[in-house]
Design a protein that fits this description.
Number of helices: 18
Structural class: alpha/beta
Distance between the termini: 59 Å
Strand order of the largest sheet: 3-2-1-4-5-6-7-8
Bound molecules: uridine-5'-diphosphate-xylopyranose
Largest sheet: 8 strands, mixed
Helix content: 40-55%
Number of strands: 14
Length: about 425
Amino acid sequence: MTITVIGHGYVGLVSACVFADFGNKVWVIGHTPEKLDRLRSGDPIIYEPGLAEMLQENNRAGRLIFTDQYEPAISESEIVFITVGTPPKADGSADLSAVYKVAENIGHHISSKFTVISCKSTVPVGTNLAVEKIIKKVNPKANIAVASCPEFLREGSALSDTLVPDRVVLGSNSKRAIDKLLELHKPLPGKRVTTNLASSEMIKYASNSMLATKISFANLISLYCEQTGADVEEVLDAVGMDSRIGRTFMYAGVGYGGSCFPKDVQALADTGKKLGLDTGLLDSVERINHLARENFLKHVLQEVKGKKIGILGLAFKPDTDDIRFAPSVYIIEQLIKKGFTVTGYDMAAMGNIRKIFGDKITLVEDAFSAIKDADAVLVLTEWNEFKQIDLKKVRSLVKTPLLFDGRNIYDPIKMKELGFTYSGVGRADTK
Ligand code: UDX
């Protein structure tokens, strides 16, 4: 099959590489010449394990073609995927301007051949119908069917999530479009959910909001634990043993970040408000997420006596260089404001942190240099490298053995034995 993917962020590039890897010819449309050159030369731009190899292999095989032109990509393709960004606006609603601009461009180039226009960008209910309207307004003869094909990949495990999905959701009001999409997705394992446009659009928001709700619930319970002598890890381990609840995605910490949960919870709340619904639950999920980092910071500010802070982990989660809405960004901002000197280390995200903070932060090439002579150590991302780090060495290098574990990766008892004043999240005996 020949397909086009418009946009080459996480969703676009990973999908393009995977479909090309299955033997399809995939056009990828972008608008920044330097980025397209990098992609052509095999540099995926984003940090994602395994992606560079897949990109290079499919570039070599000639199955991936990067371009800034809509022609001949659109008229050759049976399916066109829209995968451009839908960032949050100041009021929390999704900014759909890039999606609508792309729809207009498609309208100008679409031929009279039947083409499926499938949106992989996360868009509020009704957006795909608006996309259809725009294309048909520009080109009344367009022979298209719109579809929603949400992507559930996580950064850091994007390839395996795409190659081994739990489910493939395909939504359209056209059976012909669903059949085409089923054919393209045939090599993938996982359940198939075929549904109408609105349900498919809702599935993505409901999934991300449910996951964010579980995290905020864990963080709320951690606040109770902190004040009552309970230990959040033991509490949630036992809660999670109930098979109706489960333990996955219920870990307390400094809160969720990234390009999806914060924006998608807000966008679903915004849709709810427009529909006249009570969005209290979703509003609380976001509020508690903010509270999680505030509470962590409160302890740091109360307990650290010196001015030198060493931070381990800056990305919003491990295995990515992404710092969008990362708890680290907020925490560093506040620490700098309060006059602390911050030294940080991360396996992948230092370049992005540098872009925000410039020389206001010192970034170093290894964990031990980051914590050397520190008055406190903050762990903000649970990279594997930190889980079994030589803590005796850390203890010997810091000035004050004060460690704030924002991801609960260490055992409080062992930390005490090693001579640390340890502060986890929701772990009362350590506070
Ligand atoms: C998420 C969804 O998981 C994915 O299905 C969707 O397609 C995009 O959004 P992603 O943002 O890449 O993926 O990361 P994810 O692994 O879900 O983590 C999101 C944030 O939640 C991270 O900041 C992580 O640290 C935090 N988190 C996750 C917790 O704080 N506690 C948990 O128990 C799980």
